[in-house]
Amino acid sequence: MTRSARPSARRLRRLLVPLLAGTALVAGGLGASSVALGTPAAGHPAARTAYAAGNPLADRPWGVYQGRGDQAWQPYAAATGARKQLLATIALRPKAKWFGAWIPNTQIAGKVRAYVAASQAGNPEALVQLTLFAMKPWEHDACRRLPTAAEQASYADWTNRVADALGDAHAAVVLQPDGPFALCAPGGSTVPSSMIAAAARRLSAQPNTSVYIEAGSADWPAPGRQGGVDAAVRLLVQGGIGSARGFALNGTHYSSTVDEVARGAAIVRALEARGIVGKHFVVNTSSNGHPFTFGSYTGPDPDNAFVCRTRSDPLARTCVTLGIPPTTEVADPRWGLPAATRDLAAQYVDGYLWFGRPWLYRQADPFVMARALRLVASTPY
After folding, report:
1. Which GO terms describe its biological process (predicted)?
2. Domains (ranges, CATH) in the chain?
3. What is the pLDDT of residues 136-152, one digit of tens each?
């Protein structure tokens, strides 16, 4: 995600959604792939599909982590009544929890084990989801300097500890969001990509871990000289796609599911042309219920895009709301996708996942209550 400066002293001024209307919105927006409202869930039933043969994410329950490690959990647990029902749309859906460099090497294994245990809730067949974000330097800093030898060694050690902690758990791992920053390493160096490749190999060596290397979005890398699909393929080849299940798209952008599926299918076919076959991908749909191109955002900070005011917000061409709920039923007509998109999704997409976090300030921290409530109220799903 191309980072912009933080907004000035302007603060989000969000009114709470009308709670009487909110209850109906939750009931309509949850869909068949969601847990029952207000009920602690041992696991989230992933949608079953006839075309999901060989899909490691399908035909098993999806774990829902319920604990302080999820910024949405405590606000939900403390809420009551209609507000609790609204927040359940976020808190009780299976999401890929972020683990990053802010967790020391000495603590990461314990935190991953605790997360797996809490998410599985006693069911070893339940799928757990993680987003790993431990590369240093990263984002714009990755364009200015390369990782030091100590940082490279620390990253490898950190990743080894994550892999050991996952053990034989069924896991979907999104590896290094904002992946295109690996392409801007000084001097065209492939050091960051080689680190990601080593992490992909190590994690994929676990018996039930499916790794999806983040490859940007349909609008990033942008088309142009050596851009677009070609740049994404270069990123993935350098980043070790050969040893991974596939790749991930749209982690921090807001591009439409239609565009993401088309981009992903083009990447798969380009990989096949290079002899790298059998790859699939996942799409983050937590943030694209009202899709727009990141570079066309009309507000001050696209990383903290304004939330849509209604399910159809004609006055806000660029606003964010929740998209398709987490599911492996990627070609289901209820999502309103064109037939061509459904056909491509059925062939190449393992799942629509929620590894973006639009309910957090700048998609990072902290949880913003008014923002979360508006996201739930305005989602078309």
Report:
1. cellulose catabolic process
2. 21-34+42-378 (3.20.20.40)
3. 999 999 999 999 999 99
Of 49, 26, 29, 39, whose CA–CA distance to 327 is shortest? 49
**Does the structure show a pLDDT above 60 at 37?**
no
d(CA 232, CA 221): 7
Task: Check residue 226 and give its pLDDT.
Answer: 73
DSSP assignment of 216-233 equals -BTTBSPSSTT-HHHHHH
- For residues 35 and 33, give the distance between their C-alpha atoms in angstroms, rounded to a whole number: 7
Residue 209, H or E segment? strand 209-214
* Parallel/antiparallel/unpaired status of strands 349-353 and 127-133: unpaired
Distances, alpha carbon 96 to alpha carbons 103, 105, 237, 274, 277, in Å: 16, 20, 24, 30, 26
One-letter amino acid for residue 95 of the chain: K
Report field, pTM of the whole predicted structure over 0.90: no
